[in-house]
């Protein structure tokens, strides 16, 4: 497994990978993450997992500071599963290009907990926009509580 810590390493490692699966995470892996890693390996030639705790999606700075972190354990899990790449960027690597269009939710889209978590979902959209532009995966594997969503070539299954 290659550990990629910056955009240069990322670009070098991903050259010529045609069918790349991407699993975006904030680390502290659990069974849901592991099922996504396995699905990516099943459907893709190579898999990359990102571990990035995005400060833009936290309303409260103490929540961000106290978010669980166990990078050593996470890397051990990825090695055991024979994941090809893990991308552990710094904030400046993810948001280096300030020309990225900031995605804003319209008032009508602020439903459920989005009403109470100001900026959270915009932060999620911003980080996903940035990471997918950096990684350029063929497929993205994302979870939602007890089920997962697989995005194949912009179609959701």
Describe this structure in words.
It is globular and about 40 Å long. It has helices at 7-14, 31-43, 61-65, 71-80, 91-94, 120-135; strands at residues 2-4, 20-25, 46-51, 85-87, 139-144, 147-152, 155-156. It has 157 residues and is of the alpha/beta class. The protein has a single domain (2-150), classed as HUPs (Rossmann fold). The longest helix is centred in the C-terminal third of the chain and has 16 residues, at 120-135.
Which structural traits does this protein have?
157 residues, Rossmann fold, seven-stranded mixed sheet, globular, alpha/beta, 6 helices
Overall mean pLDDT = 82
Number of strands: 7
Number of helices: 6
Q: Could you tell me the radius of gyration in angstroms?
A: 15 Å
Low-confidence stretches: 108-112, 145-157
Instruction: Give the CATH level 1 class.
Output: Alpha Beta
What is the CATH homology-level superfamily?
Answer: HUPs
**What percent of the residues sit in helical stretches (DSSP H or I)?**
25-40%
Percentage beta strand: 15-25%
Name the strands of the widest sheet in spatial order.
1-4-3-2-5-6-7
CATH architecture: 3-Layer(aba) Sandwich
Distance, first to last CA: 28 Å
**How would a crystallographer describe the biggest sheet?**
7 strands, mixed
Count of discrete domains: 1
CATH topology category name:
Rossmann fold
Assembly of the depicted chains: single chain
Structural class: alpha/beta
């Amino acid at each position: 497994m290659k550990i990629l810590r910056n955009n240069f390493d990322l670009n070098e490692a991903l050259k010529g990978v045609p069918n790349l699966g991407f699993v975006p995470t904030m680390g502290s892996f659990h069974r849901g993450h592991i099922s996504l890693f396995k699905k990516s390996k099943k459907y893709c030639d190579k898999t990359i997992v990102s571990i990035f705790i995005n400060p833009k999606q936290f309303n409260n700075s103490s929540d961000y500071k106290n978010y669980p972190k166990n990078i050593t354990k996470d890397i051990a899990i990825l090695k055991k599963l024979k994941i090809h790449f893990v991308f552990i960027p710094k904030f400046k690597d993810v948001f280096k290009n300030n020309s990225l269009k900031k995605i804003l939710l319209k008032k009508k889209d602020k439903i459920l907990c989005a009403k109470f978590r100001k900026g959270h979902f915009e932060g999620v959209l911003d980080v996903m926009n940035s990471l997918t532009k950096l990684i350029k995966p063929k497929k993205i594997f994302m979870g939602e509580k007890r089920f997962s969503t697989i995005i194949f070539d912009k179609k959701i299954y």
